[in-house]
Design a protein that fits this description.
It is a single chain. The chain has about 475 residues and is α/β, with parallel strands linked by helices. The chain has a domain of about 240 residues: Amidase signature (AS) domain (Amidase signature (AS) enzymes). It has 15 helices and eleven strands. Strand 2, helix 4 and strand 3 form a beta-alpha-beta unit. Helix 2 runs antiparallel to helix 3, helix 9 crosses helix 11 and helix 9 crosses helix 12. The longest helix is centred in the last third of the chain and has 21 residues. It is globular, with a radius of gyration of 21 Å.
């Protein structure tokens, strides 16, 4: 899709300004119901589009992403633009600088259409935790789009933009992509800079592209990845563009199917679609290998100790003094400032996770919870190391079920957390993972998308992109 639009721009079939205006027209038509966007940056977008049109007119070379409409999750800073993380506490916050990914997008003359909705501070799997109301699944608006990058996925799935960026801490790019039928890539931890992205779990967070095709995800990754002096955890990237690795051939590749992902809790319809995808990989010449990730059963518990601990630490800065001042409050003391700001500014899910994290880090409990969780995390990582000595990729369902109805899990946080059961392991281990549409299941007369997840060795985005692309062009 990106490649085709790029050609149309070059040969004059369309213009960057027309593409931007088409995006705004779709937003005007659909977004009052879908609620993908929190802020639409029309003035910025049209300025960026004009620059691209002028470059094309002058015969200047433009990047493949130049002039194409995109959206950024609203926890990614854009200079002079409201950046809320979907929280009341940041409702009026205007970012004073660009995130590194924003800067890289701008360097390539991409047209930024706006900032998208999310679960507050990226905490959730349904976008129901947004302080500004949920986004809706464009396949069936009575169902959640997934989360926390729900707005970004909805914007792509409903053709409001060509591609978008989300963040993935425990599955927040992949799970909504599975629910809405898009491609969602979580790169290796460190592949993409986190500078200027509002932190949730600093050892888990990663920015990733949401697109219509696997090749499009590769094209976006090529532009946003690489070493950044402002993020000490970032790493150098491949000198060859990632899209050049999408060759459409995986004959001889070994794909591991972990039994731990196919047991209790997996929806029968999803299991059937997944096994058909496994057969397709066999037809394409891949060798299917049964593998084991024995510590998978502890992954969710481990994640829900480490992530809230890091979240509680990261959110300590939102105290009404450094960040998060709220005009309607009138505290008389510093303590009142803290209590009122955080009491009224944070939603219930944030409070729940901050309390969990603070408890896990507190004196007397640190060794019993956080330290032990880090030890289990090391065992989970070792599982991946061992398996990747035998296979090239791991293939699993992205989620245990298709998109669920609004309100189905809001009263039981544990049920909601189980939506991440197949995705958190990639974040804990730091490996790259991509969700690719593999089929659909019919529920109440609606064909709901199902995603398959490919995980690869550390810094082998090339491999999983090619494996996903090969499936996609042959399904």
């Amino acid at each position: 899709m990106i490649r085709d639009l790029h050609e149309k721009l070059l040969n004059g079939e369309t213009s960057a300004t027309k593409l931007a205006e088409q995006s705004f027209a779709v937003i005007d038509e659909k977004d009052s119901e879908l609620h993908a966007f929190l802020t639409v940056t029309k003035e910025l977008a049209l300025e960026q589009a004009k620059v691209v049109d002028e470059k094309i007119k002058k015969g200047e070379k433009i990047d493949m992403l130049a002039g194409l409409p995109c959206a950024l999750k609203d926890n990614i800073c854009v200079t002079g633009t409201r950046t809320t993380a979907a929280s009341k506490i940041l409702a009026e916050y205007i970012a004073p600088y660009d995130a590194t990914v924003t800067a890289r997008v701008k360097e390539n003359d991409v047209v930024i259409i706006g900032k998208t909705n999310l679960d507050e501070f990226a905490c959730g799997g349904s976008t129901e935790n947004s302080a500004f109301g949920p986004s809706k699944n464009p396949v069936d608006t009575s169902r959640v789009p997934g989360g926390s990058s729900g707005g970004s996925v909805v914007a792509v799935a409903s053709d409001e933009v060509v591609w978008a960026l989300g963040t993935d801490t425990g599955g927040s790019v992949r799970q909504p992509s599975s629910f809405c039928g898009t491609v969602g890539l979580k790169p290796t931890y460190g592949r993409v800079s986190r500078y200027g992205v509002i932190a949730m779990g600093s050892s888990l967070d990663q920015v990733g592209p949401i697109t219509k095709t696997v090749e499009d995800a590769a094209i976006v990754l090529s532009r946003i990845s690489g070493r950044d002096e402002l993020d000490a955890t970032s790493a150098k990237s491949s000198e060859k563009p990632y899209e050049d690795y999408c060759v459409g051939d995986i004959a001889g590749a070994k794909i591991g199917i972990p039994s731990e992902y196919l047991g209790e809790g997996l929806d029968d319809g999803v299991a059937e679609v997944f096994m058909k995808a496994v057969e397709k990989y066999k037809e394409l010449g891949a060798e299917i290998v049964d593998v084991h990730l024995p510590h998978t059963e502890y992954a969710l518990a481990t994640y829900y100790i480490i992530m809230p601990s890091e979240l509680s630490s990261n959110l300590a800065r939102f105290d009404g003094i450094r960040y998060g001042g709220m005009k309607e409050l009138d505290p008389q003391t510093v303590l009142e400032q803290y209590l009122e700001t955080r009491g009224k500014g944070f939603g219930p899910e944030i409070k729940r996770r901050v309390m969990l994290g603070t408890y896990a880090l507190s004196a007397g409990y640190y060794d019993a919870y956080y330290k032990k969780a880090q030890k289990v995390r090391a065992l989970i990582k070792k599982d991946f190391t061992d398996v990747f000595e035998k296979v090239d990729y791991i293939f699993t369902p992205t989620t245990p079920e298709p998109a669920f109805k609004f309100g189905a899990k809001t009263d039981d946080p544990l049920k909601m957390y189980l939506s991440d059961i197949y995705t958190v392991t990639a974040n804990l281990a730091g490996v790259p993972a991509i969700s690719v549409p593999i089929g659909s299941v019919n529920v109440d007369g609606v064909d709901l998308p199902v995603g398959g997840q490919l995980m690869g060795k550390w810094f082998d985005e090339e491999g999983i992109l090619n494996a996903g692309h090969t499936f996609e062009i042959n399904k």
